[in-house]
Every structure is written in structure tokens, then in C-alpha cells.
Specification:
Histone, subunit A, Transcr_DNA_Rep_Reg, Histone-fold, mainly alpha, phosphoprotein, single chain, 0% strand, flat, transferase
Length: 131
Amino acid sequence: RGKMAARFSGGENRLVSLPLSRIRVIMKSSPEVSSINQDALFLTAKATELFVQYLATYSYKHGRGKEKNALTYSDLSHTAEECETFQFLADILPKKILASKYLKMLEKEKRDGEVGEGDEDEEEDDEAVED
């Protein structure tokens, strides 16, 4: 084991908060990975921890978190949708909508067709949303 591995091998003075065993399982789920170096495991855990911290801090500062003194799911989903850095998370953190609103959207899509056979204004709105 390397020096770094020895420092996080357990005990009260842990340098990472995430469970290393779970991270190892996730890493091993990739077919390209056959073995995982302890230092690589530690660095992946630490990088993940720092990323989650950055996402949470950014979402709190740029969302309604300050008003409520809390970080909400909607703050996270808004960040994923609006901030270019986090847009890759938009599918994982979608905005919540009511089931009734979703059903209305499905009905409208059925009526208009997938391409949008309605008037041109609706098509322009769709393009603006995609950008």
C-alpha cells in the first residue's frame, strides 16, 4: 500500500466521507476495469466529494436556498438546467412537474404530433427551450 492508502485505511481521522467500498463497487461495474489501485480509489472518492460539495454550494448560492436557509431539490435541478457546467446532470436532476401537467403535455404532443404540426410559434418555442 502507498502512503496515501495508509492514511485513509480507516479510523476516526478519515480524509473522505464517502464509503470507499461503494465507490469500488461502482468502479468495478465498468467492464474495462479489472483492478483498482488504492490511490485511484481514494482520489476518485475525494474528487466525487469535492464535486458534490461544489454542486451543493453553487446551487445554494444561486437558488432560493439562502431565502429558506436550506438547499432544495429544485435548487439542484435549476442549477443543472441553467448552469452550463452542470447541464450534463439535467437528465439526472429533472425539474419536478405535477402529474396532471405531464398528462396535458402528453395529450398536446399526441394532438400536435412529435414534430409539431401546429403553428410556427410553437416550433420556435421548442427550439428556444432546446438551446
